[in-house]
Specification:
This protein has three domains: 337 residues, Rhopdopsin 7-helix transmembrane proteins, CATH 1.20.1070; 105 residues, no CATH class; 160 residues, Histidine kinase-like ATPase, C-terminal domain (Heat Shock Protein 90, 2-Layer Sandwich), CATH 3.30.565. It is built from 20 helices and 17 strands. With 705 residues, it is of the alpha+beta class. Helix 6 runs antiparallel to helix 7 and helix 17 packs antiparallel against helix 19. The chain is rod-shaped. 31% of the residues are buried. Strands 1, 2, 3, 4, 5 and 6 form a six-stranded antiparallel beta sheet that branches. It has a five-stranded mixed beta sheet with strand order 12-14-15-17-16, covered by helices on one side.
Length: 705
Amino acid sequence: MKYSPIHTLTLSVMSTLLLCLAAVWLSLFMPRFGMGLTESDGQLRMNQHTIIALASPQQRVLLTHKAILEEPDILNGLIEMNHFFSSQGQLSQMLLDAAAHATPLWLEDNLGHEVVLTATKARWQDLPASFWLQLLVGLTGVLAGVGTWVFCKQNAAARYYCIMGIALALSAWAAAIYGSRELAMPALWFRMLSDINELGALLFGGALVALTWHYPEPYKSTPVAMYALLTVTLCWFMLLLQWLPSIDETTRMPGLICYLVAIVIMIFQWRKHRVRPDLRLAMQWFFLVTFGGIGIFLALIFIPPLLGFPLVISQAMAFAAFLLIYLGLAVGIVRYRLFNLGRWWFTTWLWLMSGVVVIALDLLTMWLFGLQAEFSLSIAIAITGWLYFPLRRYVWQRLLQRSTPSLDAVLPDAVHAIAASRSVDDAVAGWYALMQQVFEPLESSLEPFAKQVEGLSDNALVMAIHSPDIQQLLQLRFPAQGQRIFTDSDKILAQSIGDLFSHAIEALHAKEKGVEQERERIRQDIHDTLGGKILSMMHASEQPEIRTMAQSAWQEMREILAALDNGPQSLMSATIRWQNMLAQQLEMQNVCCRWHNALLNQADTPLWSGGDLLNLGRIIQEAINNAVRHAQAHQVDVKINEQHQQLEICLRHDGNIIAPETWQHGRGLTHMLQRIQTLDGQLQWCITDEGWLQLTITIPCLDSE
């Protein structure tokens, strides 16, 4: 029968909870005598007594502070550990006999006083906080591991992450059981649990090496994972058979070596995938959380005994470092899609934990207040609804969800970009800049619209959205600088922004169409009315001066009509028109005008709008008129050249020279400055070495297409 991931996860939760109950039952097997023994300055104490022995009518066993060791593997060598387990067996038998047969039992202090002990039935309230902490650590590890693996069973990294969680549970739960004993427990149980604890530690190290070898992708095809797990299994069998004199060689050193090997593999993985922005942040978070938490545990529990120093913290408290690991990885799964899991993974866990919380609160209220089942269930549901669900929502929103901008927040920027758009290209550019600002992608590209499909892809790491003019498709990759993935709300927001700019582009098209229609009407009116009258003057008048003026007016009218044409026009053809238009006028005034047009030798000349060409022609015409009218010039040279996307026109003449800085700006000069400003160009006058006055016109020369 094939189970779905949800069914498998539910069964795993139930099985794990049953194992936790079994651990509690084993911890309560031994009777309790209310000893409250502690260690101080290498001595065993109970209240104000320094305890030296446990005695009964049949036997007396000397006690040292080592009898209440939380973790026996800190002892020096296997010989001392074997003696410790033997002593534990003897003490536990005395305690069991005293509880079963009501045999008197007492503790002796160093002053010869006796403290009589009375057996009581063990209760779960008697278990220390360290027991519950280690139980929680193991529960978190196995549930996080299994909960990750069931959703991506084909992922080798998830499989070894699951093995790490199970190994952590084995180690933590075994340590929780024997670490919560009051004084002693049966030697066989104690040794078996200690061996399970060591197995969990070794298996955790081997799985860590396997995990780093396969995360985020297998480094190579070499079966390093199998070698690592076989090696730690061999070390464990060597520990069981006691082939080496100390636990350092079979557990601590292999564990540290696994940690160091995993770090080396991590470095190689980072170098291999450092160019992958979709993996970079996820790897940073994964390695920081994992190796940081494990490093803390090793530094507190493994390294001091290796160097001959006592532990500075209890093993149970050090296990809290693993809580940071698994809680941090849960956050990483939500934020960075570790193991290719999304936020639905965390949502699934919240759903399952909701049921667990209700059941736990129901049992707790029944036990604390002695209520009937129906009343306790009602109270449990009320507490869950009033406290747990609001707290869960707060944690989800504040800690795990990165806020994404809403349309209300983006709307002012969108309106500003639309208002600043003077053309369709401006609107598309404003839309593109706004999309970059809102989603902050690591990468973006514009593709032909026909080749791509809109929507989310590549596990929501990529979002494609069409441009407002429906000509291109924008692909955004790795939002928020790679710190999150795209969501459906991002897609809706992007479509809403695109719709706003699409409406703006429609309005621009309507405006351009209206302007074009009005321009065409004006062009037609000028051509039909003014053009007809000028032609009549040219053909009907017998006076040469009037015909010349009419021809000049006809050329002027053609320039104006060309300016009304919104399409791109050739600069070379425009210069030819200017040359022909000015030739007759200058010839009548006995002025020689020489044109040096470098554009005639170019295959492709720049294209300009009609309005820009009109402004440029008026500047040239005004400059030549000023040279003839005010300076009485006889020779005018005009040089036109275009290079480096810049048009340069030099006009110089031999007339009466007045220093440009002494000029008074009249209407003609003012109009020239206004027109050049419209073209984003510059006018510069100077006196050449030959004593001629030169005007240099420079204008950015960008094709209008």
